[in-house]
């Protein structure tokens, strides 16, 4: 880094001289006077002319400075509230009081202020600046800024995406000046949508303040206003379009020089210069700058970033500008994207302005490098910025790390606003898009743009048609779509739609993962067949995990995990505090399994362009959506490693199309093996497969040496294996290795006929008088409930399915399923003949699809379940699939799973029933708790 930095300085010095550069900037960071203005008195009372009573440090947010109001029950928030469970659950009652308020919907700031706030500072301007053009730069204010200098109003800006830059030349004088800035973070005339991640308390915390660069910058009377660079990959050229302002009254002859350096090596490109005539005012200059036949391209594998160094000279006037760029061409070709002619498959996640220490995005590259490192470690190559645009540092880091970015115009125009209805937001979106492209459009990582997220309004399609047409015609450096989610317009260059995923909004238990037996031979061909442009699936996943309460201690900044504190107190109130870690790990294993199914379905789809996860990391708002295998700090939770994740999410992923994953002995496993390969180059490999049981290999083979091109749906061969009758249940794993890339799929094999048990045990679906009498007389009974037969008081209204919770129940209005899989002791003797881990795996799909969750707290005695169902963290009920008790002189095992219906077609249920009966026939069946038969009878409708 030192060598590169020194080399860049040498080049700059040859153009401008280092001293001029350092003398042209005044850093305004430091102490500022401060005052809040909740009643909007400041303008009328001319606070910009008087000292303010408090002090703060900038750049920072108000809350970082300890300013704002304490959080109360009446605090006004920016964001939608849904399903106010908080007010109705007695477990949360202690936390609604003024002195102990805890909000369950998002991370809670230490203080909160929404309104106008004033910042004032005395600045000293050097005498030689009087002949200079001076701009005030506020890198990221939030969000509307008004500026006064020496009592005069300079102007107002309200971008949420780019620096607020004010021309202050005519307002300054040599010596002391007063600078006053009024920042207002209220939603006023322009409403981008109160859930937009650019402003909402769900994630970014709708803070007030200024962060990032805060400076005055001087240049000559002739200066660069904007420079756009357009790479030409075919001809190894850079087309430069510079906007130059001549503030002198006379035309000038100017020389424009261009040079470039490859940032990672310091290799330079030959300079070029041309002369131009500048008229007074704004001038448009163009130059074609050759990069040489050996110029390197930019992509995810080789993120070659160049620095363009421009020098402008007109007589005594000089200016310079440096711009990062990459030589790349990202475009749609058919239903795929290509970058420099190579097919690209977008494996993406979202960034929703989640910054748990500050509540605002970092303006330095270090944290962005951490984010993108986590993204790459999990096999991803793409990040979508949902309804917001990040600062410059995010683009710089993405450029240098090879990450493809989708950027959006600060809006989720839904709920509180709409598009195409003539509201101020329409013009704001167009203006914001222009600002974003002007500020960040040269970055090679910036390959996709949408207006924002999930638009509303009866005329949103008409408005967005104009938006996409405008940008597709104006700037070919990236591809454009209407919005994240919808609409799929004819003018779109790609669609970002929610159909291709295994669980969609409101599908509940009817989704493919919850309604169809386990298999891996489906894809989304039918869902994208109608489109002839790339389709990127919108927000796939959304699979939840139980909270990690150990995470609470990480919140050392201005946002606190009060939501987690509430959920922990609720768990404690339900007497399960010691199970918190187990719930996390078991539900995490199910979450990872669901993500694997989602991602593999996308990778199996021929001609598919990619997916965007929601999410690789947790989303702390909207009722708390714990949808990440990483926490909000982009750090691991302990149940899946990046290496494990990359087995099913990577540049190269082996895939197996399995029509089923549960077998009877005598049946054959048939797997069509294919690969999704989107690596740097084609590969030649001899795919190998093996079938294992634990550490033992029971079969293996190869599919022959093959040349594997870039793409997916590439058929490699077939694996067929017949399971011999061994009269024992077992889990087997199919593993495929392609050139060092591994993936695997668990399957289960059960005896086609189970033997009889040694003891005569009564099996019933309800507790009638004959069964009660039998229990009283000392008989043992297996009570296996039929799905839907239990009442709400005992859990009958709990929606139970195989998958984890989708997004979260508080925000979705209680969409099913309501639970997070199972937790059990695999060594429990009741499960001896039903091989299992401590968590859900595919062999539990049948049980979860034919079951009732039984609420143990409805019984008079504490009960220890054999198989527990992990409840939603909002309610934390003690739920069971299997539990036991003594009734009279007899012993009872209660199954929330239907173990009697259609067993000839349900090998898992048949085997589980056998395992339970074997256990009940042994001396190990010795329930500790005792229940009256009437309590059991109350379970049923």
Automatic annotation (TrEMBL):
<dbReference type="InterPro" id="IPR006103">
    <property type="entry name" value="Glyco_hydro_2_cat"/>
</dbReference>
<dbReference type="GO" id="GO:0005990">
    <property type="term" value="P:lactose catabolic process"/>
</dbReference>
<dbReference type="InterPro" id="IPR006104">
    <property type="entry name" value="Glyco_hydro_2_N"/>
</dbReference>
<dbReference type="Pfam" id="PF02836">
    <property type="entry name" value="Glyco_hydro_2_C"/>
</dbReference>
<dbReference type="InterPro" id="IPR013783">
    <property type="entry name" value="Ig-like_fold"/>
</dbReference>
<dbReference type="InterPro" id="IPR036156">
    <property type="entry name" value="Beta-gal/glucu_dom_sf"/>
</dbReference>
<dbReference type="InterPro" id="IPR050347">
    <property type="entry name" value="Bact_Beta-galactosidase"/>
</dbReference>
<comment type="similarity">
    <text>Belongs to the glycosyl hydrolase 2 family.</text>
</comment>
<keyword id="KW-0378">Hydrolase</keyword>
<dbReference type="InterPro" id="IPR017853">
    <property type="entry name" value="GH"/>
</dbReference>
<feature type="signal peptide">
    <location>
        <begin position="1"/>
        <end position="23"/>
    </location>
</feature>
<feature type="domain" description="Glycoside hydrolase family 2 catalytic">
    <location>
        <begin position="338"/>
        <end position="486"/>
    </location>
</feature>
<dbReference type="InterPro" id="IPR006102">
    <property type="entry name" value="Ig-like_GH2"/>
</dbReference>
<feature type="domain" description="Glycoside hydrolase family 2 immunoglobulin-like beta-sandwich">
    <location>
        <begin position="224"/>
        <end position="328"/>
    </location>
</feature>
<protein>
    <recommendedName>
        <fullName>beta-galactosidase</fullName>
        <ecNumber>3.2.1.23</ecNumber>
    </recommendedName>
</protein>
<dbReference type="GO" id="GO:0009341">
    <property type="term" value="C:beta-galactosidase complex"/>
</dbReference>
<dbReference type="GO" id="GO:0004565">
    <property type="term" value="F:beta-galactosidase activity"/>
</dbReference>
<keyword id="KW-0326">Glycosidase</keyword>
<feature type="domain" description="Glycosyl hydrolases family 2 sugar binding">
    <location>
        <begin position="28"/>
        <end position="216"/>
    </location>
</feature>
<dbReference type="Pfam" id="PF00703">
    <property type="entry name" value="Glyco_hydro_2"/>
</dbReference>
<dbReference type="InterPro" id="IPR008979">
    <property type="entry name" value="Galactose-bd-like_sf"/>
</dbReference>
<dbReference type="Pfam" id="PF02837">
    <property type="entry name" value="Glyco_hydro_2_N"/>
</dbReference>
<keyword id="KW-0732">Signal</keyword>
């Amino acid at each position: 880094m030192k060598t590169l930095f020194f080399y860049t300085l040498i080049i700059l010095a040859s153009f401008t001289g280092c001293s001029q550069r350092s003398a042209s900037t005044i850093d305004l960071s430091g102490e500022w006077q401060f005052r809040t203005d909740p009643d909007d008195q400041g303008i009328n009372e001319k606070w910009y002319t008087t000292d303010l009573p408090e002090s703060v440090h900038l750049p920072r947010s108000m809350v970082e400075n300890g300013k704002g109001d304490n959080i109360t029950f009446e605090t006004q928030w920016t964001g939608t509230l849904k399903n106010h469970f908080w007010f109705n659950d007695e477990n949360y009652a202690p936390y609604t009081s003024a002195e102990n308020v805890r909000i369950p919907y998002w991370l809670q700031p230490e203080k909160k202020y929404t309104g106008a706030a004033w910042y004032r500072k005395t600045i000293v301007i050097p005498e030689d600046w009087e002949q200079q053009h001076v701009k005030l730069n506020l890198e990221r204010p939030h969000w509307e800024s008004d500026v006064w200098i020496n009592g005069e109003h300079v102007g107002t800006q309200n971008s949420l995406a780019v620096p607020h830059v004010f021309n202050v030349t005519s307002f300054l004088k040599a010596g002391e000046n007063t600078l006053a800035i009024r920042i207002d973070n209220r939603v006023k005339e322009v409403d981008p949508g109160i859930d937009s991640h650019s402003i909402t308390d769900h994630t970014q915390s709708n803070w007030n303040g200024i962060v990032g660069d805060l400076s005055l910058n001087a240049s000559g009377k002739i200066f660069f206003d904007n420079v756009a660079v357009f790479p030409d990959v075919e001809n190894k050229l850079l087309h430069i379009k510079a906007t130059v302002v001549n503030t002198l009254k006379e035309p000038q002859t100017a020389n424009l020089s261009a040079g470039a350096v490859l940032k990672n090596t310091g290799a330079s490109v030959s300079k070029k210069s041309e002369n131009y005539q500048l008229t007074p005012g704004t001038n448009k200059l163009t130059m074609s700058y050759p990069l040489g036949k050996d110029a390197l391209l930019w992509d995810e594998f080789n993120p070659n970033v160049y620095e363009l160094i421009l020098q402008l000279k007109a007589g005594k006037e000089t200016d310079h500008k440096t711009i990062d760029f990459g030589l790349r061409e990202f475009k749609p070709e058919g239903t795929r994207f290509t970058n420099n002619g190579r097919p690209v498959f977008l494996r993406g996640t979202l960034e929703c302005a989640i910054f748990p220490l500050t509540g605002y995005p970092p303006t330095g590259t270090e944290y962005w490098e951490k984010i993108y490192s986590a993204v790459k470690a999990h096999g991803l190559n793409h990040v979508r910025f949902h309804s917001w645009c990040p600062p410059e540092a995010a683009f710089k880091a993405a450029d240098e790390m090879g990450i493809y970015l989708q950027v959006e115009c600060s809006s989720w125009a839904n709920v509180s606003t709409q598009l195409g209805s003539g509201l101020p937001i329409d013009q704001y979106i167009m203006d914001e898009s222009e600002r974003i492209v002007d500020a960040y459009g040269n970055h090679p990582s910036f390959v996709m743009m949408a207006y924002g997220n999930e638009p509303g309004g009866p005329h949103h399609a008409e408005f967005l048609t104009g938006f996409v047409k405008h940008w597709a015609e104006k700037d070919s450096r990236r591809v454009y779509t209407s919005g994240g989610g919808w609409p799929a317009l004819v003018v779109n260059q790609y669609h970002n739609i929610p159909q291709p995923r295994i669980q969609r909004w409101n599908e509940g238990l009817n989704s493919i993962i919850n309604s169809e037996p386990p298999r891996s031979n489906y894809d989304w061909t039918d869902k994208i067949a109608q489109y002839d442009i790339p389709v990127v699936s919108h927000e796939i996943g959304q699979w939840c995990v139980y909270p990690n309460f150990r995470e609470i201690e990480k919140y050392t900044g201005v946002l606190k995990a009060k939501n987690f504190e509430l959920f922990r107190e609720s768990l404690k109130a339900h007497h399960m505090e010691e199970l918190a870690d187990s719930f996390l790990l078991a539900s995490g294993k199910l979450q990872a399994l669901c993500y694997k199914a989602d991602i593999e379905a996308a990778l199996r789809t021929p001609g598919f362009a990619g997916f965007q996860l929601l999410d690789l990391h947790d989303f702390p708002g909207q009722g708390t959506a714990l949808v990440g295998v990483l926490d909000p700090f982009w750090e691991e939770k302990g149940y899946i490693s990046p290496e494990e994740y990359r087995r099913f999410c990577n540049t190269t992923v082996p895939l197996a199309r399995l029509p089923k994953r549960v077998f009877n002995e005598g049946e054959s496993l048939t797997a069509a093996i294919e690969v999704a390969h989107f690596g740097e180059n084609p590969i030649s490999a001899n795919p190998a497969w093996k079938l294992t049981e634990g550490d033992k290999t029971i079969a293996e083979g190869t599919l022959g040496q093959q040349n594997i091109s870039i793409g997916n749906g590439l058929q490699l061969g077939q694996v067929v294996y017949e399971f011999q009758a061994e009269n024992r249940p077992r889990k087997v794993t199919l593993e495929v290795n392609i050139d060092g890339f591994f993936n695997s799929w668990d399957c289960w094999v059960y005896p086609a006929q189970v033997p009889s048990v040694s003891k005569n045990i009564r099996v019933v679906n309800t507790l009638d008088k004959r069964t009660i009498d039998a229990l009283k007389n000392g008989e043992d009974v297996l009570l296996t409930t039929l799905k839907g037969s239990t009442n709400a008081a005992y859990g009958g209204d709990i929606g139970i399915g195989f998958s984890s919770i989708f997004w979260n129940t508080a925000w979705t209005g209680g969409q099913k399923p309501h639970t997070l899989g199972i937790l059990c002791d695999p060594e429990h003797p009741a499960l001896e003949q039903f091989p299992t881990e401590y968590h859900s795996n595919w062999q539990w799909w049948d049980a979860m699809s034919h079951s009732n969750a039984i609420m143990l707290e409805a019984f008079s005695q504490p009960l220890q379940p054999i198989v527990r169902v992990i409840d939603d963290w909002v309610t934390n009920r003690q739920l069971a699939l299997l539990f036991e008790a003594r009734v009279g002189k007899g012993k009872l095992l209660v199954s929330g799973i239907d173990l009697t219906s259609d067993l000839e077609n349900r090998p898992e249920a048949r085997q589980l029933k056998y395992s339970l009966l074997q256990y009940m026939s042994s001396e190990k069946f010795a329930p500790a708790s005792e229940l009256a038969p009437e309590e059991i009878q109350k379970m049923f409708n």
